[in-house]
Each structure stands twice: as C-alpha cells, then as structure tokens.
Amino acid sequence: MLSVIPIAEALSLVLEKFSRGAASLETVSLEYASGKFLGADITAEEDLPAFNRSTVDGFAVRSADLLGCSDSIPAILEKTGESVMGKACVIPLTPGSCVYVPTGGAVPPEADAVVMLEYSEDFGGGQFAFYKSAASGANLILRGEDLRKGETILKSGKRLGAADIGTLAALGKTQVPVFKRPLVGIISTGDELVPPGESLRPGQIRDVNSEMLKAAVGQHNAIAISKGIVRDEYAALRNACSELILEVDVLLVSGGTSVGEKDNMPRIVADLGEILVHGLAVKPGKPTIIGEVNGKAVFGLPGNPVAAFFIFDYLVKPLLLAMQGAKVEREQVEARLTRAVSSNHGREEFILVRLDGNSAEPVPSKSGLISTVSRANAYFIIPRDQEGLPKGALVKVTRL
Amino acid sequence: MLSVIPIAEALSLVLEKFSRGAASLETVSLEYASGKFLGADITAEEDLPAFNRSTVDGFAVRSADLLGCSDSIPAILEKTGESVMGKACVIPLTPGSCVYVPTGGAVPPEADAVVMLEYSEDFGGGQFAFYKSAASGANLILRGEDLRKGETILKSGKRLGAADIGTLAALGKTQVPVFKRPLVGIISTGDELVPPGESLRPGQIRDVNSEMLKAAVGQHNAIAISKGIVRDEYAALRNACSELILEVDVLLVSGGTSVGEKDNMPRIVADLGEILVHGLAVKPGKPTIIGEVNGKAVFGLPGNPVAAFFIFDYLVKPLLLAMQGAKVEREQVEARLTRAVSSNHGREEFILVRLDGNSAEPVPSKSGLISTVSRANAYFIIPRDQEGLPKGALVKVTRL
To answer: How much is the average pLDDT of B248-259?
Structure first.
C-alpha cells in the first residue's frame, strides 16, 4: 500500500527542492528570443521617445497662438517649414508661426501642441487658418513620456511574447539574456508497450507517453531527450535511468511506479538516490514517485497516459517554469458546471472539462485513454472530502 | 480623409476572400507535429483497447462466483495462472477460478470483473479468499470501450497539443497530415526607422514592428520572411512589395498607410493590385489598408506598434489560423472592470487589460509604445457608440 500525500504538498516540495540552482542564463539574438524566458530585468537606458513627437499629420503650434480662435474668427499662422521624418526638427517656432509635422515626426522644441491637418485651411502665401484652439500637449508625445531612463520595463522570468519582443526592439536590446532551456529525459517502461509505428500483437499497447511527454516538455520551452521504451526489468531500467540522469536536469519515467512485484521504479529510485514521495492522494495519478538522484528531480509517472498527463501538468510543468525563472501561478478562471459531477474516493480528483466562455462541460473519462484529454481544454480539481458538485456549481478551472 | 469600415466587417471580408485556396497539406513525423494544425479528420482504424484490460493489480474473476460473499463467508477461488504484460491471456477462467492480472494486463475472455489485490487473501495452496462481491465490469476496460473502429477522434484544423500527440500515438499514426505553414512577408517602412541594433540620431526611432511581427507570425505556426526596413519612397517600396509577394502567402507592410503626401502604400497597393479597404473605424488602427495583389492578401498596417499589434491580432491572426484549417473563434471570457474606462471617438476602441481570474484591470496606454502591451495580457473592445464603461461592468475579454 502507498502512503499518499496531497498533491499541493507534493508541488510545494518539488518547487522548494528543485527549482533553484539549476537556473543558468545564456544570451540569444532578439530574433530567437520569442517563447523563451527573460533572464534579467530590462531597464530603459534612455528616454523614449528621445524627442517630442507628433501623433498625427498636422501643424506643430504654440497653443497660446490659437487661444480664442473660432469658426468666425480664425487664428492665422505662418508656415515656416516642414519637419522631415528621421531628422531632428531645428526650425524655430516663433510666435505666430506653425511647422508641418507628419505622424511620428519631431516637433520644434517650442511647440506644445499639434493640430490635425483637417482642422486647418490653406489661405495661400504660406498662411494657414485655424478654427479651434488646442490644448497644451494635444497630439504630442513628449520626450521620456513613454519611458524614463532607468525605468524597469520587463521583469526577469517573463515568457517573451510578440509585444515583449517589440518592447526589446524599441529599447535597442538585440542581445537578450534568457534562461537556458532545461533538459528533460523521458523513458517509458512496460513490457506491454510497443513504439507507435509498430503493429500490435495481442496484449500489447502502443507507447503513448513518450511522444506526449516530448510534446508537453517542448511546449514549456524545455528540451526533451527521449530514450523511448525500456524493458520493465530492474537492471535495464536502472542502467537507462542512471545514464540519462547524467545528461538531463529532470528525468521522467512513466510506468512501473506502483507497488506490484513487477514495479521496479521504487527500488531503482531508492537505490540510485532517494524517494521523497511515493503515492499521491489524487485520482488519477496515485502511483507517482518523486525522487532525487544526483541532486536532480526524478518523477516516476503513472503508466496510464491520462494520469501521466495530469501529473505532468500539475507537478512537472510548474517545475520547468520555475527552473526558467517564471512565477509559478496557476492561471485559473471561474466557470459554472453544466452538469453535476460525482466523486467519492477520499482523494482529490482531476475532472476534465470543455470550457466555453464561463461554462464548463465535464468530459467523461472512465478509462486511461488520452483521447478524452484531446476532447477537453481545461480541468478542475474536486477536493478530497467533497462527494461531488451540483450542476451550476462554480469551479476554478485551469486551462490545458 | 479615410472612409472607414467597422473591424468586424473587415474581418469577414478578409476571411471570406483569403482563407480558402491557400490551404495545402504536407505529412510530418509525429515527433514534429506538435503545434501544427491537423490536415484531416483522424479516425480509429481498430478497436482500442484491442483486448479486455485490467485497470488495477488484482484478480480477474467471474463476478457470479463472488455473489453473496462477505466478511464472514468469503468466496474461495483457485488461482489458475497469471496474465503476463504484453501477451494475450489464454488461461481459461473456469467457474471457481481466478487469474492474477497486473494493471494494464489482458484478462481471460470469460472474466467480467477484476478485484483489487488488497481485497483478497492468500489462503495458501493456490486458494484465495474474497470478502466482497464485484460488480460486472468492475476495474475492467472492454475491447473497443475507449474507441470503436471508425470513430472520429480528432478533427481537421485542430492545433495539436500534447494530449493530441498522445492520441495519435495511441492510434499508431506516426505520419501526420498537417496544413503547410503559411509564409508571411514582413516589411517596415518609414524614413525615421533604424534597425534595433543601431544607435539613434535625433528624430529617429527603432523599428519595432519587424521583430514584433516576426514573433507574432511564428506564434501562429506561420513562417516569417522579413525584409527589414525599406525606405518610404514609392519605387523602392513598390519593388520590395512586388518581389516579396511572389514568395509569400500574405504580405504585411507597416507604415506609410495613411493619407499624407509621404504615404506610399495606398498608391502601391492600388498599382500592384486592388485596395479592398482603406481605413478602419477603430482606435488605434484607423490607417489600415487591406488589399489584394496576385490573389494574395496584403495588409498595410499602421506604423504605430500598438496599432499594428492590435490589427495583427484582430485581422491577420484569424486569417493565418483559417489558412491552416482552424475554426476561427475568439476565445473570450467575461470579466469585471476594476476601474471605469472612457471612450468617446465614434470608433470602436481596443482597451488593454490585465486579466486576473475574472477581473480585468485596464492598462493605460496613451501613446503608441509597445511596452504598454507587455504590461497587459488581454484586451476588450468598447463598442462604437458607447461613451465608456463604469467600474464593475462585465466585458468580453480576449487573451493575448
């Protein structure tokens, strides 16, 4: 019998024990930084914009010159020049004059507003009429208004999306410090397993977990090193584990984790290092092992693919994120159940749902077939002592 | 002046005009299929599992043999053998007998239930005592119970996640039909622009859109071909566009899209092909061009990075998804505003928010600085005729 612990406790232990230390940095070109985790706070090294800019096509003015103008009494200003894109604007803006500025162009230092072209009228001879006053600051971005030199813009540990890449470009950061991608070893064990490409003999099933875990590891910016299927035999499995753990930061072995005679993983983890946890109070996923070998995390995941999927999502994914400096927060939304669900196991239970807006439709999954997860897009957890939840109950849903 | 149309109308036009035709398929190995879009419905070619399997370590039994047994009057069955993982179970299960089966192992065809090991007692001499009756079907997955031959499991157009990869592995699909990745050409234009790695002279700003759009294109499984900055000059920009459109499925040019003298894009799109839309009733993003050249979509995006970002998200992203067979649905959640927001433009307005659970904190973004998008994780749209929304208002939020 396993002596099980709650999954939240297991998660705390994993993060506390393994998320430090492994974090190391490398520098990549901006064009390869998308999807990686930022390795340092990013600070503006200059004011942005570096000059006062117009946000419209129009005339840079001194707003005082337009005070009191109206449809019947326009203000007449003399155009003394045009600002050119990409150049400083050195045309002096004396009282009574205006300077044409295209969108994004520099305005003369004396200008405190820009009037849209549409609100002016060309009277000929360089004279332009204005029929509306302009508030000081209108259609203008002042130097440093976007960012002040020294301001922190992006925090270490942020996963870089398109807008972040744009922000780095805006700051001129073409070399970006990022966390190194963790290396994750993957082994499937079980004498009933055959590679997905081979035909099945009676009693055999295909190895689902190798490909699934490779994909899951890749989604979190880690690098998978998969050894495929290893026979469920002590020496072979022990050798495979002890070799692979030298190459990787985290080792995932699925199968052979229970307490049966044929379950070698508990003994192998104990012999190579230390078992920290054997058994989780959750369904599915009870026969999970968390161990430490050479100071590295070893997860013995259930052979059942749905269980392996959940335990990866709940325990391994947060570790991979933490190793890359990310804040580990489950992004949850509240949703209402469209049907009642029952649970009665004395263990927490993962329930798959199809989340649509703010309603959550439970996806039935009696068996360990991974295609039930394909039909879902989120899950929630029924607490240990809850016998079920009625239709319409609010649940905290985690997206897959 | 632009004659603007609503963004929803522009989106319909884009999808209707450009999402067909370009869709072509290729076949990739399962290990490279993650993140790609499935190119055909996937159907089970056999029953799964292919044999009756146990979900626990225990004894396969005829449930009738345990009828009426109890703590005081156990049923005694004779163990006649053990099922071996990966082999068919050919041990006959005669009445009064039981067969040991490990988790996942095949059970004898006559077995209709499995009793967990913990609920049996070894009486010696091959005799095992059972103290509880078992429901027919208990701890058993019957042949075909997961999937029936001919059942459709995954639909064409689905973006393949880890569980889908696992499902394909379970079905033995090691060669996967996927949609080809669209090729997207990217050009930035504007004489004020310099590459992010160069130092700025007065009046210059860094090209944000090239790197941002490359990252955004890559996030949606398309391939970016970026030509960097092209001078905002008719001949140079026209040549760059007409060459690049030959190589790509979609062309994105940011900058030069307004109605100023220096704005070359309207004329270039009209000269090379046809302008379908010039001007969107949205803030930011008004100076957007949608055109057709050689039957391909050309987007003239605003030079303002925040506007380019929104127009990409609202118009270009759905097109890239549609070209890869995906159902184009905005995944939205309802959230409550933590502060009032005002809007008063006669145009729809994109409002950035920081979504936390079900509350949405508006992120102020006066200017075009892309770092304001970095601070947000979602946005919503204020309708055209709405002057603003009060604190606590429910809004439909789209994640970034």
So the answer is: 92
Contact between chains at A216 and B50 (C-beta distance less than 8 A): no
Across the interface, of B86, B206, B209, the residue whose CB is closest to A204 is B86
Q: pTM of the prediction?
A: 0.91
Interface of A with B in 217-256 (CB under 8 A): 218-219, 232
Task: Name which of A85, A171, A259 is nearest B192 (Cβ-Cβ).
Answer: A85
A345: pLDDT strictly greater than 80: no
Q: Which residue of A has its CA nearest to B357?
A: A333
Q: What is the layout of strands, in order, in the sheet containing A183-189?
A: A223-230, A183-189, A250-254, A296-301, A289-293, A274-278
Residue B51 near chain A (CB below 8 Å):
yes
pLDDT at B258: 82
Query: What is Dmax (Cα atoms) for chain A?
Result: 99
* Extents of the domains making up chain A: 7-24+180-323, 26-46+149-178, 53-141, 332-399
Helix B162-170 vs helix A209-219: crossing angle, to nearest 10:
160
Instruction: State the best of B167, B201, B286 to mutate against chain A, taking most chain A CBs within 10 Å.
Output: B167
Q: Could you tell me the end-to-end alpha-carbon distance of chain A, in angstroms, rounded to an integer? A: 31
| CATH class name, domain B7-24+180-323 | alpha beta
Are A159 and A326 a contacting pair, CB within 8 Å? yes
Residue numbers of A between 26 and 45 with CB closer than 8 Å to B: 30-31, 34-35
- Examine the pLDDT at A367 and tell me if it is beyond 70: no
Q: Which of A104-108, A179-183, A298-302, A366-370 has the lowest mean pLDDT?
A: A366-370
Distances (CA, A) of A374 to A115, A116, A184, B127, B328: 56, 53, 23, 44, 18
Q: Does domain B53-141 have CATH number 3.40.50.261?
A: no
